[in-house]
Structures are given as C-alpha cells and as structure tokens.
Specification:
The chain has 4 helices and 2 strands. By secondary structure, it is α+β, with helices and mostly antiparallel strands. The termini are far apart. About 40% of the residues lie in helices and about 10% in strands.
Length: about 80
C-alpha cells in the first residue's frame, strides 16, 4: 500500500482472489492471478516490469523457494 500511496504503479501477483487482493485492486494495484511455480505465469506477470519485490511465506515446496524463482526470472 505504501508504493500505491506514493503514486507508484503496482502489479500484485496472487495465487487466488481474496479480500486482500480486492483491497489492493481497490487501492489501484493491478492484480495478476497465477501460479508462482509456472514459468509462463511468472513470465507474463513480469512483462513491462522494471523492479520486482517478492514476499511470501516460507514453504518447503521447491517451486516456491525464492532462489528457484530468482533463477527462473533470470531466464526471461
């Protein structure tokens, strides 16, 4: 919300629509619904993006591992 308050354009990558994603959209964020373990979804979400911030809960699934995701982004 802080970036939106500063007038920045924000795209939020969400796994599913929720009250939180609805609140972000109402505040002005673009919502991208997808699967972080899907290379195509991540690629599409990053189109025209110059900076990305990744915030997620730590989970044991390798595909949600930040290092794995960073390596996927490097291939774009």
């Amino acid at each position: 919300m802080e970036l939106l308050a500063r007038g920045e354009q924000v795209r939020a990558f969400v796994h599913r629509k929720s009250d939180r994603s609805d609140a972000l959209q109402t505040a002005g964020a673009e919502i991208f619904k997808g699967d972080m373990s899907d290379y195509e979804d991540v690629s599409k979400a990053l189109i025209d993006i110059h900076k990305a911030y990744f915030f997620a809960l730590l989970v044991p699934d390798q595909h949600c591992n930040p290092v794995y995701l960073y390596r996927q982004v490097q291939n774009i």
